[in-house]
Amino acid sequence: MSVRVPAKVNLQLGVGPIRDDGFHELANVFHAVSLFDEVTASPAEELRVHVRGESIAGVPTGEDNLAARAARLLARRAGVEPAVELRLNKAIPVAGGMAGGSADAAAALVACNLLWDAGLDARELAELAAALGSDVPFALAGGTAVGLGRGERLTSVPSGGTFHWVFAFAEGGLSTPAVYAECDRLRAAQGRPVAPPQVSERLMAALVTGDAKELGMALSNDLQTAALTLRPSLRRTLSAGRDLGAIAALVSGSGPTCAFLAESESQAIDLAEAMSGIGVARAVAKAYGPVPGATLL
């Protein structure tokens, strides 16, 4: 069973106060884009994970791999042994702020559910996904969605068009917990209270109309300042994209991937080519969204 699953970019990442469970209250607008990992599940004598693809250094292949955790969780729910070989073919950058690990977990849930004939429906898979991580439910769903709570409570958002993106991948990753911790530190240093985040009405309107320029003016990421503090070189990458004509530029999620919104597909092609030649990123890719979530191939 082979499942294709998309990366995400956060159109809005509003970070509120820390909850009693240690997570932050979020107003998160997810957008699935056409940069995909593929996960293949095959019968095996025991759980094994093999990884290949884009910049996979540091991806665990043992029990800590999130796709392996997803397979074990589903096996317990289905009452079967987690005897499966998971082959991950990655195009989503590792620790890049695009939810690559969460995407692989979502794909593993779908693939193993079919491989073991477990019979879980979409709601049951979403419950398991939420137990694995805040971004995993969206990787199942895809499209564009508002995620509240810690990001796992999803409401689909209609999109009136296709949006075109260019992504600049940095050398190495950024730890999501470290970026959140830096965000907390910076806020504490400012000494002002943190209000619960609200979903941007301007952003919602831009999605409905499909207006790329309006969307670009409404993009926001409360983690961006923290990511730039930890990785100052990203400022140069963002500035380069803007100088080359991007409608908008922002850090994707917790970073260090930088996302650039283009006005059209042709502009995205030109922007990707231009950014590839100026040495501000390890690699550059173009994509479009929204796209569906985890899908059987």
Write structural notes for this entry:
By secondary structure, the protein is an alpha+beta fold. 36% of the residues lie in helices and 29% in strands. It is built from ten helices and twelve strands. Strands 1, 2, 3, 4, 5, 6, 8 and 12 form an eight-stranded mixed β-sheet that branches.
Describe the structure concisely for a colleague:
With 297 residues, this protein is α+β, with helices and mostly antiparallel strands.
Low-confidence stretches: none
Total count of strands = 12
Distance between the termini: 8 Å
Helix/sheet category: alpha+beta
Give the count of helical stretches: 10
Could you report the average pLDDT, rounded to the nearest whole number?
95
Overall geometry comes to globular
Q: Describe the main β-sheet briefly.
A: 8 strands, mixed
Order of helices and strands: EEEHEHHHEEEHHHEHHEEHEE
Beta-strand content: 25-35%
Reconstruct the topology from this structure.
Layout: E1 2-18, E2 24-43, E3 48-53, H1 66-78, E4 84-90, H2 100-115, H3 122-132, H4 136-141, E5 144-148, E6 153-156, E7 163-169, H5 176-190, H6 201-209, H7 212-218, E8 220-221, H8 224-230, H9 234-243, E9 248-251, E10 258-262, H10 265-276, E11 283-289, E12 295-296
Parallel strand pairs: 1-8, 3-4
Antiparallel strand pairs: 1-2, 1-12, 2-4, 2-5, 5-6, 7-10, 7-11, 9-10
Helix pairs in contact: 1-2, 2-3, 5-8, 6-7
What are its keywords?
297 residues; 8-stranded mixed beta sheet; alpha+beta; 12 strands; 4-stranded antiparallel beta sheet
